[in-house]
Amino acid sequence: MLDRLEELYRQAADDLARITSSEALREWELGTIGRKGEITLMLRQTGQLPPEERAAFGKRANEIKNLLTQAHLEREELIREQELARSMEEGQVDVTLPGRVTPVGRLHPATRTLREIYDIWAEMGFQVYRSRDVETDEMNFELLNIPPHHPARDMWDTFYTTTPGVILRTHTSPGQVHAMREYGAGGTKPIRVILPGMCYRYEQITARSEVQFNQVEGLAIGPRIRMTDLKGTLTEFARRMFGADRQVRFRASHFPFTEPSAEVDVTCILCQGQGCGVCKHSGWLEIGGCGMVHPAVLRNGGYDPAVWSGFAFGIGPERITMLKHGIEDIRYFWSNDLRFLNQF
Ligand code: PHE
Question: Is residue 143 within 8 Å of residue 180, measured between CB atoms?
Fold first, then answer.
């Protein structure tokens, strides 16, 4: 019996040393030291031996079972390592390979300029007022002192829509009336807001004009606001936006919703006023329109023009971005060309 045990042990140990897969290892375990394995079964037969042999046999059988259990654990560990190494090789996983770079998005140049503009006006006490892109004819024109069929409408051709009286706004100026009505508390409170957003005009698309573009409207209403406030505030904005030595000029102009009205120019960013191709050799670049809010518009916003006054302006951030970066064609802005966008 003892001989048989030793024989089994040798055989099992030999087999174990040759095993290379975890399935074979599992089978070996079941056949030897498992619940119904040969070694286990032998151990159970100890009781049937003559009493004088029992102790020695039982001791040796237990010893062998422990040795095999230990050897099994070691083998198991070795096989696991080998299998891992093999699967790494087969799967061709090179853990030292650098990861793929995920492209990170960036802000559109127009958005960057808009944010720069918000910051400057915020420092001067103007809050951002968001107003709708889809407007009524009344808001976009009539309440801004532009009656139906008035020739001034020619400055802003609208897109045709199928709903009568509804249009896409051609400028951010209708936001003036929205802001006055919402923040003015019935014409009793001063206002300082900027109104940024997309505008839409039915125009021929060229290097200098698009059918959609951003504007930033500004509006200040107070009891004693004068033209000098408008000039001072816009001059300060231009200096903060384009540099401290920037010169600003106001040219008389006409808008139905401001009186008096002006266009704002700054000295050319590229040639510093010397005259170049971008400023058409004038030394000046136009950045927007402005003026004192017309009494009719103040009234439409709920204010008494005998007591309240205000100034308004509208600037074109795309134009400013073009001037700052020397972009010659406005069509780049909305054509989604990464060769353009990646430069910012
Ligand atoms: N809304 C005018 C335009 O689009 C600009 C403007 C705004 C002029 C406010 C005066 C005051 O041309």
Answer: no
pLDDT over 90 for what percent of the chain? Answer: 68
CA distance from start to end of the chain: 88
Domain with 200 in it: what CATH number?
3.30.930.10
The total number of structural domains that make up the chain? 2
Beta carbons within 10 angstroms of residue 49's beta carbon: 15
258 within a domain of the structure (yes/no): yes
**Helices and strands (DSSP H and E) totals, the chain:** 11, 9
Q: Are residues 212 and 80 in the same domain?
A: no
Residue 289 CA: nearest ligand 1 atom is 8
Q: Is residue 329 part of a domain?
A: yes
Whose Cα sits closest to atom 10 in ligand 1?
290
pLDDT in tens, 9-43: 999 999 999 999 889 999 999 999 999 988 888 88
Task: Among 131, 155, 173, say which to mutate for ligand 1: greatest number of ligand atoms within 8 Å of CB.
Answer: 173
Asked if residue 179 lies in contact with residue 172, where contact means CB atoms within 8 angstroms, the answer is: no
State whether 84 and 125 are in the same domain: no
Report CA(68)–ligand 1 centroid distance (Å).
93
Answer yes or no: is the C-beta of 290 below 6 A from any ligand 1 atom. Answer: yes
Query: What's the CA-to-centroid distance between 105 and ligand 1, angstroms?
Result: 33
Q: Whole domain around residue 263: which residue ranges?
A: 109-341
C-alpha 344 – ligand 1 centre gap (Å): 28
If phi over 0 gives left and psi between -120 and 50 gives alpha, with beta otherwise, what is residue 281?
A: left
Does the model's pTM come out above 0.85? Answer: no
| Beta carbon of 314 within 6 Å of any ligand 1 atom | yes
Calculate mean pLDDT across residues 199-212.
92
pLDDT in tens, 271-310: 888 988 778 899 998 999 999 999 999 999 999 999 999 9
